[in-house]
Amino acid sequence: MTNPLKIDEPAQLLVEGRDAQAFFCAFLEKMKIQDMQVHNFGGINELPGFLRGFVRIPDFADNVRSLGIVRDAEDNPRSAFQSVCSALERARLPLPSGPETPTTGRPYVSVLILPDSETPGMLETVCLRAVSSDPVMECVDEYFECVNQRGFHPRLIDKAKLQAFLASRPEQELLGHAIRNNSISWESEEFNHIKQFLSSLLP
Question: Which domains does the chain have, with CATH numbers?
Answer without folding.
Answer: 11-121+186-200 (3.40.1360), 123-180 (no CATH)
